User: Which sequence fits this backbone?
């Protein structure tokens, strides 16, 4: 059985409300290889993600804020997907519910911990191109993030962000040669305001954030592949009460593997790190694990 069950993945830092002089790290809408290969009408997927990341440096406007900065994150995501055909097009209404724990320090100042459930994400990909013969796929995914997660303005770290987010992602997948496949995605995210940012009830606003990603997968066997990806963010300048806090400008890479069991259970394991960042914690090591069951 070919490895066709890699739907959309979100490997993320899900925290908000850092010290007012230090901008929030943004949600990264990272895809996995195979995310834009649809399953047949009537298929379902149940997925569970676990991401463990560690950062030992933090940056503001491109400058390291100094020693004594680190962040540890343990984030899970529960996700359910249903594939259906409407008007001749395959689509997949779904939800994603993050949860987890983060803790850290910034320039020696204790940020404490953030625990709980994150903001609910609702999404639905519509495949405009779905050609299994040429293995060409193109889909459009609108998403909305609702401010349902745990948030306390007095806590430097939070799992929720206390703001709406609206995202449109375009995804493309094409087998280039036998066993080698290219996946690519581009998305833009528009942010609502967080009007309870920090203990002083400041307003956090943010301009549209863009992200581009490319992934190469090589199938060693029909059920086992190796993969590598590169991602870049730009835009997304943040403001606290109108004062610029800078842009994330993050780039990163990952390497990993995926294996499909006969029971239609897929396992994905990956490791990655940031190569550069202008504003935020620079991730030095992140382990991503996903288990997905098709039924």
Assistant:
């Amino acid at each position: 059985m070919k490895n066709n069950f890699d739907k959309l993945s979100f490997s993320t830092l899900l925290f908000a409300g850092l010290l007012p002089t230090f901008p929030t790290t943004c949600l990264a809408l990272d895809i996995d290889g195979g995310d834009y290969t649809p399953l047949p009408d009537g298929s379902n997927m149940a997925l569970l993600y676990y991401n463990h990341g560690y950062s030992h440096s933090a940056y503001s406007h491109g400058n390291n804020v100094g020693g004594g900065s680190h962040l540890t994150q343990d984030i899970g995501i529960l996700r359910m997907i249903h594939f259906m055909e409407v008007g001749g097009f395959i689509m997949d209404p779904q939800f994603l519910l993050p949860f987890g724990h983060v803790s850290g320090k910034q320039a020696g100042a204790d940020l404490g911990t953030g625990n709980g459930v994150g903001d609910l994400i609702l999404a639905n990909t519509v495949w405009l191109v779905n050609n299994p013969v040429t293995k060409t796929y193109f889909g459009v995914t609108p998403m909305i993030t609702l401010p349902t997660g745990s948030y306390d303005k007095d806590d430097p770290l939070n799992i929720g962000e206390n703001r709406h987010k609206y995202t449109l992602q375009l995804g493309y997948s094409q087998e280039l040669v036998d066993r080698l496949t290219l996946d690519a995605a581009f998305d833009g995210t528009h942010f609502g305001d967080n009007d309870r940012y920090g203990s002083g009830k400041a307003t956090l606003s943010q301009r549209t954030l863009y992200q581009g990603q490319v992934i190469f997968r090589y199938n060693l066997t029909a059920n086992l592949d190796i993969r590598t990806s590169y991602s870049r963010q730009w835009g997304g300048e943040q403001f606290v009460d109108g004062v610029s806090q800078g842009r994330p400008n993050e780039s990163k890479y990952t390497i990993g593997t995926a294996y499909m069991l006969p029971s239609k259970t897929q396992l994905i394991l990956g490791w990655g790190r940031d190569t550069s960042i202008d504003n935020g914690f620079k991730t030095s090591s992140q382990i991503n694990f996903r288990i997905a069951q098709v039924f």
